[in-house]
Structures are given as C-alpha cells and as structure tokens.
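Two proteins were folded this term; both appear here.
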Amino acid sequence: MADVSLPPLIQHMLQPEFYPHPVIEPIRLMQTHVSYVTLTGDYAYKVKKPVDFGFLDYSTLERRQHFCEEELRLNQRAAASIYLEVLAIAQSDKGYSLGTEDTVVEYTIKMRQFPQSALLSQMFEQGDLTEALLRQLAEVIAQFHQTAKTNDYIRAFGTVANIRQSIDENYEQTESFIGGPQTQQQFQETQAYTDSFFSTQQELLQQRINQDRIRACHGDSHLNNICYWQDQLLLFDCIEFNEPFRFVDVMFDIAYIIMDLTVEGRQDLAATFLSHYVEHTGDWEGLQVLPLYVSRQSYVRAKVTSFLLGDPSIDEAEKQRASAKAAKYYTLAWSYTQPRTGRLLIMSGLSGSGKSTVARELSRKLGAIHIRSDAVRKHLAGIPPQQRGDDSLYTPEMMQKTYERLIRLGTLLAQQGYTVVLDAKFDREAMRRLAIAQAQEQAITFQVVFCDAPPEILKQRVEQREGDIADATVTVLEKQSMDPFTDAEREYVISLDTTQSLSSQLGTI
C-alpha cells in the first residue's frame, strides 16, 4: 500500500513499472531533509526536495535541474563509476515517465547502487576499517586534492571573513542548547578559541591562500560519504549547493575523517591516516590549522543533532539518544580547542634497523604524527614519494637540507601540541645535537629512540624491502656508520633491540 504522506511522484517511483529495467522488490526509499533516494537493485535514483534553507535552495524546478547537473559533474571527479546521468521525469494523463522531456515536472540523478556494507562508516562500526585501507584512502584524497581546481576566486574563500562566517553562525544557532547537550564552559571556551585564532593567525591563514591550499574540495568527506566498492575507494555526495562549503582548505576536508575516527577513541587510526596524507602532499605545515577544522566539523555534527531535540515528531527516547550524541560531539569540538603539550621523538639507527616499524608503532600508541626523512627529501627534490630517487637526493647538501627541514617540522608541530616521531637515521651527532638544541630552546619534551640489530639482520631486511618509499640498498647500507652518542645525548636515548619483542621495550617510551 502506498504511503500517502509521500508526494505522488515518489509514490510512483516506488512502483516497479516506473523503471525501464528490472528491479528488486520491494523498492526501498531513503530520505534526508533535502532528498529522496529510491533503491531498485542495480540503480539508485535521487530526487531533490523543493526546499530552501538559505544555504541550500532547491525551491524551483530550474534550480533542482541545475543542482542535479552540478552534483553529477562534481561527483564524477572522485566517484565517476557511481554517477551516471541526469534524467528528466515527465507527467502526462498516464502518469509519470522517466527519461522523457514532455511536460517535465522533476529531475533525478541515476546512480549505480552499492551495498551499504561498502560504506566506510559501516566498515568502521564492524571493525573492518584497517590501517592499510586508511593509508590507501589517504593517497586517494591526497591525489584528489592535488588535482582539485583553484584560482583567485576560489582562494578568496580562504580569508578570515569567509571562514569565520559559518563558524560564528554555529554559535548563534546553538546558544539555546547550553545547559543541555552543551555546557556553558564548553560553549565559551570553544568560541574564545576561534575568536583568538582568527585574531592571531591571520598570517597563517594567508599562507594557506598563498600556497594554493584553498581548493574546490569535496566539502563533506566524512566516512558515511566514502565507500570501498569493486576494489575502489569512492568519495561521493560532495557539496554541490554551496560554494563556501566546497571552496575550502584541504585540511577542512580531511578534518571530517579525523573527527569520525577520534570521536570513537581511535586516535591510532587517525594518526595513521593523517601521517600518510601529509606524507603524500608534503603539507605538514597544514596541521597547524587542522584543530580549527576538526573543532568546526564536530560542532556542526553536534548542532545538527541538537536540532532533533526540538522536533515534535521525535519521541522522548530518540531525543535522549540525540542529546547524548550531540554532547559527545560538543565535547570533541571543545577538546580540540584546549592547549596540548607537544612531544618530539627522533629515531636513530642504520637502514634496516627497524626504525620505521618502531616509528609506526609509536605513532599508533601515542597518536603521533610520523614524518619520514625519505618523504621530506623527495618533496624537497620535487618528486613523488613513491618514485625512486637518484644520487642527487643523497648529496651532503641535500642531506643537510633534509634534516634541517625534518627538525624544523618536528619542532613546529610539537610547539602546536602534537606528538611527533621523526623517522630518520640521525646517524650524525651534529644533526642530533641540532634536534636537541631546538627542543631545549622551545622547552619540548624530547627523546632519541635508537634501534639496533646485528649486521646480518640489517642486510636481510634491506634486501627484503618492497613497495616502500625508502631507497636504501645493501650497497648504501655497507657505507653507513653511526656516530657514537655523546655523554650529553645519553640522557635522552632509549635503546631498542629490534630482534626482540617490541611491546615490552616500548613501554618505557
């Protein structure tokens, strides 16, 4: 029996005879506050609701056609295999028909239907979202951002005035929830942080503009808008209706993923994704603005959830669940505005000594940013991290530049409250001394993690490497040596035998 509360067109779209292809019955309907989606088996059809929320206006047929075409165009950037075409829906005495131009009354986007189990949000809930898949996702998004369009018009959306407009609106729209899912302290301190950021960090935000980090992004790239289907990671349902939500800093885009992982206590997965993303873009400095955007995305999620509390159609039990969920996101938004104490760890040891294995494990355990010298060196040389470097990457001059940038990045991010693991040989005492001096000058907690293994194990590990950005070969290894640690260094050094179990050894760190 048809649901008479639905518009007549949607009632017809739930009937098999509406479609020119076989369907799986019953046809399922999903809807949000802005759209209807019918699921027919092989294909899904999306119809936009005739609504106007100010930031989104689908109120006329012409606007719905335009935004259907925009949604198709923009989503073909990162989900071309899903988005197929925009079709007209006509009405006659015989009813509604799909794909004809006579008396058009609506437009629909035809998409390939994928199982809900392919959503990364579902995979995360089931415990199936692995570190390997998150690293793959980091590479996909890095490539998407590096090829995303930018120009003077798009860059203008990175100004303080444009960024803070929606953030200030969030506070205005949530004051009534103080004393409910949000505390007065959280509200005031979150707002004070953003006010201070926009007052004191104008130069940083201008740098983001100058460095072309404001691009035509996805705009809504949380885990529920990403799927892993047919061996592809696809970012779908991007923002097509509002330029300020899409023309954003690339860190705005990835903040959704950090939010989704962190709110569930998976800082280990967040660190894995984040470290791999910035390794591929070289945008380590961008981590300075990330807390602003994670706080912003969390606050928006809290705000939207809070709106359910005033909906008379929702029962009390559902409102209690909504209030608890909103409180969790308000707390996350607030937590990213609080001062954090940074920490800097540098790895040390010859090639094959297990530095990267230990560094990755430290990143997991500490939620740390893992920065590899191989990636820093290749970004300095202007080549992709996965491309094998030639001898020019290993001259004394390039080694000096690499270590100086590595230490500069580690110190900068530790000052911002991050725990950072610098993954390099640090075989020369001069470079270790420089790192110690920088950490002491900034009063940053500092440690040297020295990895060691017998020569035959080093050789075996280097020979077995594959699919990694490290370029060291056995020939390179044979030329390496370690400067001994000085008495001044030893107070910072923790030595690990990487032929033994790491779990007990890492406990001291």
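Next, the second protein.
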Amino acid sequence: MAHSQFDTFLQEATHLDRASEHSLNDDRLFGLYTSWCYINQQAPGREATFWAAMKRRITPGCNGLRMKGPAAADYILASCPGIV
C-alpha cells in the first residue's frame, strides 16, 4: 500500500506518546500539517480532506500525538512570532 501525504506527515512530524496526558488538539494538528506542507513544498489538502484522512489514522480526542522535527519548529515560530 502506497503511503499518502497524510501518512508521511504523521511519520515525519508527529510522535505517538501513549503515556502522555497531553496531545495535539485539532487546531494544532492542522497547523502542524500546514507547516509540514510548507517545509516540504507540497500543497496542503483541503481541511475537510485532512480530517477525513485523520479519522482513519488517529484516535479522536486525546490522540497521544506530539510534534517533532522541522515542521514543529516552523509551526511554533509561526504561532508565536514574538519568540524570535
């Protein structure tokens, strides 16, 4: 089975931490996805398409996902411009 853009995003930009009580909420997960697309020079899919794909790949609510990699840094810097 070929990996989709969404599978690659989850592999490269997230880490599953089942022990954590914290996880990415919907806004942060989609924001991380758009940062990942920007860094990888890929056009992001429509938000509805993203959520349909995530519905089959992650547990809703407390999904245990954490940010990692260059997309995480880009998302954090874009979300908090006063940091730099």
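The chain has a mean pLDDT of 89. The two ends are 41 Å apart (CA to CA). These notes refer to the second protein only.
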